[in-house]
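Support request, priority: normal
Reporter: lab tech (M.K.)
Component: structure prediction queue

Hi team, I submitted a job for ATPase from Microbacterium sediminis yesterday, and the status page still shows it as pending. I've pasted the exact input below so you can check whether something in the sequence is tripping the parser. The sequence length should be 341 residues. Please let me know if I need to resubmit or if it's stuck on your end.
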Amino acid sequence: MTQAPAGTSTVRLADLHPQLTGEEMLASLVPPPQFDDATFESYRADADYPSQQEAKELLTAFAVGAQPAKRGLFSRKPKVPDMKPGVYLDGGFGVGKTHLLASIYHAVPARRKYFGSFIEYTALVGALGYKNTVELLRGSALLCIDEFELDDPGDTMVMTRLLGELVATGTRLAATSNTPPNALGEGRFAAQDFLREIHAMASSFQTIRIDGVDFRQRSLDGHAPALAPDEYAAALAAVGGVTSDDAFDELIAHLAHVHPSRYIRLIDGIRAVGLRDVRRLTDQSEALRFVAFVDRVYDAQLPIRATGLPLHDVFSDEMLAGGYRKKYLRAISRLVASTNS
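Reply from support: The job had stalled in the queue. We restarted it manually and it finished. Here are the results:
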């Protein structure tokens, strides 16, 4: 990707045009850096929500079942409960689903295993073609899919077909999706939506429910602070190294010209994201691209500093009441965490 000019402390994201080959996409299918050390032992189940401990135990058993058998006359895998080849973690955002998904990945010692977001897998199909993607992934022991998207019928059916072919050859699957926390009734429909959309292979998945409250909100007041111009400059300067300095509208416009699968490269080498003059988003396409960008920034654990409208108000009331409500609520949760870090 384009690097920051030598001797400078800022780089504008709108000036960067990252490229990513299919081979690089495949190599990047590993857990985000913040989950490099994620294990089942480091997952702290909330005693107020027993389903968290239950999910942890079930997924531990699933990970053992996904391990290749040891070679040797008397070697065998530990006996584990019969489980389906796929598990789906159904729960609100911020209850540790991605931590558990990464724990599965790390617990399986297979050489060929992959971890990526739904959008990364569909981008891989787009870059390499369906047939080549199947051939590359065939024979892998485990495929972890974070943030399975249910709102794009075309991509969902491509993924269903892809996963069906891989399961038929022995690959195990683990997937997550997001539902709003503390929404009576609403969160309960996620598993039904997921199984309906992947109906061709719904019988391959065991649904594991995880209740709880968003851990990012436990110590925050739920607000993303907006800084005055002098505070903003000082906050970015304090980070040190290469930071970004973008007018919000310029970044939003630029995201339309970068495929979401490349957003991770867009922030490569960046230590903080600075956004000036944040405004409310009213265009659905712009808002969804911004959500995808926020996901990558959050995965990279980059702090965000901003002026203008507080970022927890960036999505309109109409958007929050619409079909993409779950995505926007997840993004707000991550924006609050990133602006307070």
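Strands lie at 10-11, 86-91, 113-117, 142-146, 172-176, 205-210, 243-244, 246-247, 273-278, 304-308. The chain is about 40% helix and 15% strand. Let us know if anything else looks off. Ticket resolved.
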